[in-house]
Design goal:
This protein is 34% helix and 30% strand. The protein contains eleven helices and 15 strands. α6 links the parallel β7 and β8 (183-188). α3 packs across α4 (106-119) and α4 (106-119) runs antiparallel to α5. The chain has two domains: 2-218, Rossmann fold, CATH 3.40.50.300; 223-298, Alpha-Beta Plaits. It has 315 residues and is an alpha/beta fold. The longest helix is centred in the middle third of the chain and has 14 residues, at 106-119.
Length: 315
């Protein structure tokens, strides 16, 4: 459905994105994840036809974004980071206007507007001025304008930025409801956003794709690594030194309080047992110990934090 090949965008000597390659299959929900400035929005603007690349190709449903722009735009609904809404228009009038701009057949406009209002739960505010709506509702109007042409592909760029927790939860639920009905790319730097809504993840860093796979498969990047969260009654420098000497312990860092430790170990219950046994023998007072496999935050930080280069990992 979406195919990107060797996509590059340069600003002088600076490359915002460099030789990106990825595909998105029909009906997939893919998270396009990266820190601020990684090149996410640049990529979204190019594949939606809002910006020309320096080199490379992008196609939607077999149509080249730049050779067949009208065919592509018929098939895409795009929510930029700042929703393109007109505050002095009523919600319904605005959606009709957008439908006309997108070339929706006249006899289908009302049906499509009603569909967009229903999917985004905007029925109660459909006759209100957009400028009088809360930010959460304005964001829903932005998603509704992306949906009003009933596109095959939805591109959502930071759809929950600036929203309160309740509004974020509502937008996430909406994206889940759209799953399967549309092919969706969700561009964000918010990790829970991806975990809550996406089936596959593409991680971009400094203009390069550093990983793309399902979350389950990406966990293999941290294969063999387990974090132990340890809480003791009496901490000491001798305790930390002793813990470091346990076979399988790779790294120890301080937790939320002086009594807390975060221990990275090789995967295995025997290491956890050895840590617990040592703490008790040392008389430190074992209060709590639990472990968890690496999550998306661990993977994301490993690929994007504190390194100048990362190797691409693909499925």
């Amino acid at each position: 459905m979406i195919e990107v090949r060797d996509l590059t965008k340069s600003y002088g000597l600076n490359k915002a994105i460099d030789s990106l390659n990825f595909t998105v299959s029909k009906g997939e929900v893919v998270g396009f994840l990266g820190p601020n400035g990684a090149g996410k929005s640049t990529t979204m603007k190019i594949i939606t036809g809002f910006m020309a690349p320096t080199s490379g190709q992008a196609s939607i449903a077999g149509f080249d974004v730049f050779e067949s722009p009208l065919e592509v735009k018929k098939r895409i609904g795009y929510l930029p980071e700042n929703p393109p809404v007109y505050g002095d228009m009523l919600v319904t009038d605005y959606l009709k206007f957008v439908a006309e701009l997108k070339g929706v057949e006249k006899n289908k406009i009302q049906k499509n507007v009603s569909m967009a209002l229903e999917k985004t739960n905007l029925g109660s505010v459909s006759q209100r001025l957009i400028q009088n709506l809360s930010k959460g509702f304005r964001q829903r109007v932005g998603i509704a304008q992306a949906l009003v042409s009933d596109p095959e592909v939805l591109i959502l760029d930071e759809p929950t930025v600036g929203l309160d927790p309740k509004q974020v939860a509502e937008i996430r639920d909406l994206i889940k409801e759209l799953r399967g009905q549309h092919t969706i790319i969700l561009s964000t730097h918010i990790l829970p956003e991806v975990q809550a809504t996406c089936e596959r993840i593409i991680i971009i860093h400094r203009g390069h794709i550093v990983a793309q796979d399902s979350l389950a498969n990406l966990s293999s990047l941290q294969k063999g690594v387990r974090k132990i969260q340890l809480k003791v009654r009496r901490n000491s420098s001798e305790l930390a030194t002793g813990l470091k000497n346990i076979s399988g312990v790779q790294k120890i860092s301080s937790g939320a309080t002086p009594s807390d430790f975060v221990i990275e170990t090789t995967e295995g219950e025997d290491v956890i047992e050895a840590v617990a046994t040592y703490v008790m023998k040392a008389g430190a007072g074992l209060l709590e110990i639990n472990s968890a496999k690496a999550d998306l935050e661990d993977i994301f930080l490993k690929l994007t934090y504190g390194s100048t280069e990362s190797q691409e990992v693909v499925s």
